[in-house]
Amino acid sequence: MPAAVMNGIFTRIGIPSTIQLLILVTSIDYVSVSTLMIFENRFYLLNSKKKWWKRIRPFWMIVNFLLAPLHQIPNILEFPDQKYARELVINNLPCVPEFLYTADLVLPSLNSPTIVINSILFVSIIFGQLAIFANIIIAQLYTNFGANTLSKTTRHLQKRLLKTLVLQTGIPVVSLVFPGIYAFFSIYTGHFDMGLNNLVATVASLHGLVSTLSIILIHQPYRDTVLFWRKNKKSESKRWSIPVGSNLTNH
């Protein structure tokens, strides 16, 4: 039985926990969709002369962007009465911390398989498409089958870019995949471990930081910009610092 306690800015300003949970899950879904769009963009650039894809591309993008909020409808319909669900959770937990008695618990569903199956279907659809685009791009870059004619230099640059995109999307996804796998296992089996739950929530919350660091470390333009900013900052501090010895000499 999945349950959570929302604790952040939205809680402070009085936004209901159910709305916060919906925003959180939908945001994660849009991260998945945007990752798919990155690989589709690579495919489109390699196949820009294909008129059939140009025609269906806008509709394909609309369907995928709508899928993120719409696939939440079965979960929304499963939302139970929160007061009853809260009492049920507290009575079933083996060891209830004191803060949970007064915390604003939110339970998306009393029927765990619905959430698990719905989430697996969404992930399969999005990352299934991503895998198809990635495989087509790899095949076209290494064989030129069906792609626009590419020069040797362009092909080399496209291969490098593909590798960086795989790293850019793959490294942050790990910070969501492992917590997600444990969450599905915990929900489906009814396993409860407060320590592991806190660890999983902490790892998942680091996704933004991991994404930012991976972009800076993997892409040279971002890396050069950060190093240039640091270098300028150091030179500015040196310029405004006045040696003590020179002041004494002047006096």
Describe the structure.
The protein is mainly α and 251 residues long. It folds into two domains: 1-143, no CATH class; 161-238, no CATH class. It is 76% helix and 2% strand. The chain has a two-stranded antiparallel ribbon with strand order 1-2. Helix 9 (207-218) packs across helix 10. It starts with a strand and ends with a helix. Mean pLDDT is 77; it is low at 244-251. This is Serpentine Receptor, class H. The chain crosses the membrane at residues 20-39, 115-143, 164-187, 199-218. InterPro entries: 7TM_GPCR_serpentine_rcpt_Srh (IPR019422). Keywords: Membrane, Transmembrane, Transmembrane helix. It holds the Pfam family 7TM_GPCR_Srh.
Summed up, the helix count is 11
Please estimate the helix content: over 70%
Major beta-sheet overview: 2 strands, antiparallel
- What are the low-pLDDT stretches, counting only 5+ consecutive residues below 50? 244-251
Q: Averaging pLDDT over every residue, what do you get?
A: 77
Strand proportion, as a percent range, falls in under 5%
Task: Give me the strand/helix succession.
Answer: EHHHHHEHHHHHH
Structural class: mainly alpha
Give the spatial strand order of the biggest sheet: 1-2
Q: Distance N terminus to C terminus?
A: 77 Å
User: What is the rounded Rg?
Assistant: 25 Å
Describe the global form.
Answer: globular
